[in-house]
Amino acid sequence: MSEAGARGSVTAPSPGSVGPSGRRRRGSPTSVGAWPVAFIGLLMLGVAVFYYWPIVKNIITSLQQTNAFGGDPQFVGFANYRALFSDPDLGSAIGNTLLYTVIILVGVPLSVIIASMIELPGLRGKSIYRMIYFLPYLAMPMAVAQVWKIVYNGDFGLLNQFLKAVGVHNPPYWIVTPGWAILAVSIFGLWASIGFNVIILSSGLKAIPRELYEAASIDGATGVRQFRWITVPLLTPSIFFLTIMTTIGGFQLFDALFAMIGRGNPAEPKTRSLVSMFYQQAFVNSDQGGGAATAIVILAMVAIVTVIQFIGQKKWVNYV
Amino acid sequence: MSDFTTVEIAKMAKNQGHISQRRYVPVHIILILGGLGMVFPFVYQILMSLSTNLQIQAVPPQFIPKTWHWSNYSDVFAKLPFLHQFWVSIEITVLRTVIQLILCSMAGYAFARMKFKGRGILFGVLLAILMVPGQSYLIGQYQVIQSLGLLETPWGIVLPGFFSAFGVFLMRQGFMSLPVELEEAARLDGCNPWQTFWRVMLPLVTPSLFAVGITTVLWSWNDLLWPLVVTTREESMPLSVGIATLAGQHSQDYALMMAASTMAMAPIFILFFSMQRRVIEGLATSGLKG
């Protein structure tokens, strides 16, 4: 029956209809009946069960006192939130998260420079450079962080051996000293973030019409001026996208931190991020209520920062 | 493209090479120095994986092992549940990628090309889940997986990942760029919507399938937090979690850790090298459209 319905409803193409993306769509979407249910039913069911229901559960849990040893959770109102905001660790978790985010954001302008060098017209070895800069993005953070841990080692790590060789007398024990530890993790995060940025920016650069540069050369603009007045303005949509993604990624710092600053590490308690605080509460201390409250705070912070960035973009992003 | 003959293109390329190759020397120097910084950790990792703990801790550093200790690699299999975890990683990556590709391409097709009530609203409902950071679902997802009795199982690790709003979004973009005439022709030939989708449309969106597939493989192989929460037994962990546990237990056994982590990263690197261009294109589209 549905098949008959599908056939019966075929509509004539309506030329000139414009799709939501602004692209001209030749004809209208086709067919009805039960087919859409067959095509999206399972997916939407999964989305309901594994995304919408969990976020509702998270909100409910954040208002409950959960018991590690079984027993029904008790409704406690906003007690978990009050406990969170009076927790002295929250301040340091926010500070660490922000520091990490700011440092990996430096990767965006850095990547703009790298990508525009790689994409210079006629440069040899483009694809090799692209590949090399991209490698860290592929690496399992957990695995490659083990290398960095050795490089950061206070006694025999290459970093301190280098620093001593150039005359620094007492280089810090990077990953076991609070303060230095988060910096070490951030630099690792910066290194790991370049690859994705470069790929996105490279494809943004390829979309810039070459004629613009040729016209600018004829007018006598030098390479640096071309970069400033053509490349950067026309890349702003990609730069904006990366700024948003990097910020959101930074706020969700967990993998790099968990990989480098393990549980026995003396610097660990002072080096938590918001997400590692969340993990600690919900899955190490079995305080799901507290963890759920932290998750809501993370959500709120990400939302606020994203909204601010979207408002701010009007001032500097050029959509052609 | 068709405006130029190959000869003209070749000529242009030659001219550029002539004008600029020497001017690019400083650019090459900077890019090579930066590139060394990108590659060095991997080279160092492989060297250490063939070295001994004593050499790794040597001051001044010894980069090249005196003898190549391949035994570190066999030690990984002897001392650690590596094969088990490797298998779990393969299992969850294949499961998640295949099922996600099927679900997302079907839904992407429906959202691109079928007309039904509430299409826009449902698509909005779907995309909304991308706005929320993953941690906000995590406790709820854990509770759901727990009540389904799937903790410590590969299914528990992969289930939430099957339903990807991002994947649907990319697939929808892919289908929207295909001409409608194709579907009409298929319909005239007597294909029902499933046949139209499966035989005619799906083969034409392979670039989108690659983009979704590659990102999914990468995320599910490297994912840490969710599998860390769902698995606590060594034999049910994927490699990402397994390496974390190892790092705790064998924190002083550097050479062993290096061998294990090299092998944990190897499959993704091999996959990448074998289909490099596709990967880069795929990731570039996945980013631009996001």
Structural class of chain B: mainly alpha
**Cα distance, first to last residue of chain A?**
48 Å
**β-strand number of chain A:** 2
- Rg of chain B over CA atoms, rounded to whole Å, is 24 Å
Tell me the count of domains of chain A: 1
Number of helices of chain A: 14
Q: What fold name stands as the CATH topology of the largest domain in chain B?
A: MetI-like fold
Which regions of chain B contain 5 or more consecutive residues with pLDDT less than 50?
none
Per CATH, the superfamily of the largest domain in chain B is: MetI-like
**Element order of chain A: H for helix, E for strand:** HHEEHHHHHHHHHHHH
CATH superfamily of chain A: MetI-like
* Count of structural domains of chain B: 2
The side-by-side strand order for the widest beta sheet of chain A comes to 1-2
In percent terms, what proportion of residues of chain A is strand?
under 5%
Largest sheet of chain A: 2 strands, antiparallel
Number of helices of chain B: 16
Shape of chain A: globular
Q: What top-tier CATH class of chain A fits best?
A: Mainly Alpha
